[in-house]
Amino acid sequence: MNMKRNQWLLMLAVAATLSGPAVAQTPAETTAPGGNSTTVHLIRLLVEQGVITDAQANALLRQAQQEAQAASQRRPEPDVREGDVRVPYIPEVVRDEIREEVKEDVMAQAKAENWAAPNTFPDWVSRVKVFGDVRVRNESRFFSGDNSDEIIDFQKLNDDGPYDVNEDSVTYLPPLMNTREDRENLLRIRARFGLEAALSENWSTGVRLATGSSNGPVSTTQTLGGGLSKKDIWLDRAWISWRPGNWNFTAGRAENPFVSTDILYSGDLNFDGVSARFSGLSFSNSGSFFGTLGAFPLQYSDDDWPSNSRDKGKSEDRWLLGAQVGANWEFKNQSRFQAAVAYYDFDNLRGQRSSECFLYQVGPPCDTDWSVPAFMQKGNTVFLLRDIQLDPSDPAHTPLPQYVGLASKFQLFDLNVRWDTTLFNGYKLQLAGNYIYNHGYSEQEMWRNAEGQLANNFNVNTGEIESGRDAWMVHVAFGSSLDLKRRGDWMTFLGYKYIKPDALPDAYNDSSFHLGGTNAKGYYLGAAYALNERLYFQGRWMSSEEVYGPPLSIDILQLELNARF
């Protein structure tokens, strides 16, 4: 037994000695040149057991040292500095196995988390972008007790009309606006949801749905209540765009393509028609030009009007034609200045006085009923459209059912300027101004076109029109950020508006200030705070009164929570 054990020990010692050079050890494990601790212990054990002599043991150690030196010369060690990690050689087969295992693990995780599974979704999914926002607002409206209670709602008069203006035959009042009774804590919502799809490198299309109390163009806000009834959804946008280079051509119903403020165009207003925009045309190291052209149908005449006549009316379409040019300057101190001038021609928007019409004979309607505005808010000068002839048998009691039309032309020059800069500690400051001049305004033409039949903005004591052709506003904003895209961002703002009655069409501007329209002046102020990058709170106070005519003072408080995605 002892003989067999000694033979096994000898075989292990020889094997350990021969394999020593191939075993990677740290310096602390090496006790003899060319040998590792296992080899030394085995040789010492053989000496103690008397299997080999000391001379034979030394010979084995010298052999191990020589073989280690020879192996070192055949495969030189890399230059290893202090702190480096020596990576042992891994055979190609092992590396392939590791690579496959890692790949399988990564793909399993990708499929489980649905972020890189191939052929899981159709191609169109990667080309579609979803966007939208939701706003919940609490709104209170405060009216002065000194306001006139005889301000006519001309939009409702046209919608419900015609209205008999003969005081001797009419038995009810025209529709009147609420001007004295406050409306507090109206809970209102706005929800918009859209999709935009890339069709190719240069072509795209999109649609957007939105809430709204009516099909009016300036607001997508819906008042809650109504017995918990469901709310309306409207088609808010539908467009196709082509972007070759610096140009962008759009057709359909799309966002406002012009640089403007809500004194002229409401932030909720979208444009039906076609537009072409260019940008990025540099004229210096810091400046570039941009511009926009657009044609937008406002109203088409009825193909079958009048319905009870063989003689149909001619085409009397109304268009908004717009052109704008501007420039941007970018400065090294994170400042930016923008200026833009535009011309807007609201073609054929002014109403037309009819030829003589004999309604008491139950004939066809008067021939300019087509010129009733599609939509109004309040403020513009209006006149009676129909030239109704009196019944000879009872002229005093002849009904005079009337519609109203706009008295002025609207050919607007619009100047917008804005300065954005960064102040101390990274705070942002924005200064903006907007001036509008109605070149089409003429009191003489208004009198002549209306044949003296003005329905408002007329001083019976002086015999003069109380109106005007210009409007302006100034706006200041200050805060840590003006886009509120990070948690903790905040901003404050303050502004003043002054809008004469016929400076611009009252149909398309902000529906909150003075509850929409023209013939208004006053200030607004507010603040906003971002709860996170997609949610912010805002409060706004607006105080306004009339420029001319009967007193109409309106204060509005809005507190709202806005979410976007």
Q: Helix and strand layout, with pairings?
A:
Elements: H1 2-19, H2 37-48, H3 54-74, H4 92-113, E1 128-143, H5 154-160, E2 163-164, E3 183-198, E4 203-210, E5 222-223, E6 234-242, E7 247-255, E8 270-282, E9 287-299, E10 318-331, E11 335-347, E12 356-357, E13 382-384, E14 387-388, E15 401-402, E16 404-406, E17 411-422, E18 428-438, H6 443-450, E19 458-459, E20 464-465, E21 470-479, E22 490-499, E23 520-532, E24 535-545, E25 554-564
Parallel strand pairs: 12-14
Antiparallel strand pairs: 1-3, 1-25, 2-15, 3-4, 3-5, 4-6, 6-7, 7-8, 8-9, 9-10, 10-11, 11-17, 13-16, 17-18, 18-21, 19-20, 21-22, 22-23, 23-24, 24-25
Oligomer: single chain
The CA-CA distance between the termini, in Å, is 84 Å
> What is the number of helical segments per DSSP (H or I, 4+ residues)?
6
Based on Cα principal axes, name the global outline: elongated
Largest sheet: 16 strands, antiparallel, barrel
Estimated helix fraction: 10-25%
How many strands in all?
25
The residue ranges in which pLDDT falls below 50 over 5 or more consecutive positions are: 19-34
* Average pLDDT score: 88
Radius of gyration: 42 Å
Largest sheet, spatial ordering of strands: 1-3-4-6-7-8-9-10-11-17-18-21-22-23-24-25
Structural class: alpha+beta
Beta-strand fraction estimate: 35-45%
